[in-house]
Amino acid sequence: MAIPPSWIVQTGRSIWTSIWQLMMSQLAPPNDRGEYQRPQSEFRQRIEGRYAPAAHRYRLYVGWSCPWAHRTLVVRALKGLENAIDVTILQGDANAGGWVLPASEHGCHTLAELYRFGQPGYTGRSTVPMLWDNQTYSIVNNESAEIIELLNSEFNEYAEHPELDLAPIALQDSIAHWNEIIYQTVNNGVYRCGFAQTQVAYDRAYAELFATLDRINDLLSTQAYLCGDVLTLADIRLFTTLIRFDLVYHHLFKCNRSRIRDYTHIQAYLYQIYHLPGIAATCNFQTILQDYYGNLFPLNPGGIIPQLPDLSYLLDVDCI
Asked: Catalytic positions, please?
């Protein structure tokens, strides 16, 4: 069969490019170089003052597929806060324009409606994770990096593992150092690749991402975790991106130089964290695959959901 006439190809490409640029400007607003710029979180309260620590006072709103929300589930599991911090799992729905609640709450059916219920007149982004106060019906915090700090330190009297400190004072400089590197080049780096709107922006993000992964792989040849032999919040922040890498970022976000299973030491590191008590239960691989490929229409307009890739390196110790 002959390909369509050139004028049809050119017209189709022009129309699709215009539509793609419009959708991407809303999904992933770029700077003037076509680089994805992640907006800042807007709710940044701490557990202090009007917000006192208490069991069942606070609720986390999360989505299985979101790596930023996943951080909070991991820390909640490690600290043993399942019986103190309640959780609502949302469903990503592109047709609804965001996250949908599993059941109506306060007359709200979507996370956007709940944000407006907690903050009347709110017009910003309605993102997960979100820490909600059931007592004042208000949003405490929607910055994942801060929520995991709160879960680590502010609810120890209700935790099953209060002795576990994921941010020990002696390691805080090292944690902060790695957090800065990981956020820019890995956590947000994969999105900078996938949401790049120019070749230059993509090439830069791609180079920085794999330079950091190479560096981390070398580091992990001599120590168990990023900051030595102790698991910290820096590892949690890295883990939730790495666990999605071979699933979605390698192909859908064009981060295709290497897979995690190609890194001997990162692979073992990921296996070790995944098999800590409670962590595997926070990883819903099928939903991650479904949400990324099903909801990010500009990156996958055909809507085809691929099969799960080979994850045996996570599940079978003989693969390490």
From this structure: 66, 191
Closest CA to 192 of 203, 178, 181: 203
Domain 169-319 has CATH 3.40.50.12780: no
* pLDDT band at 8; cut points 50, 70, 90: confident
- Contact between 155 and 182 (Cβ < 8 Å): no
CATH number of 58-158: 3.40.30.10
Q: How many CB atoms are closer than 10 A to CB 229?
A: 7
- pTM score over 0.85: yes
- Domain coordinates in residue numbering, the chain: 58-158, 169-319
Is the distance from CB of 270 to CB of 319 less than 8 angstroms? Answer: no
Residues 291-306 as b/e (b if ≥16 CB within 10 A, e otherwise) read bbbbbbebbbeeeeee
How many beta carbons lie within 10 A of that of residue 224, not counting itself?
A: 15
- Are the C-beta atoms of residues 43 and 209 closer than 8 Å to each other? no
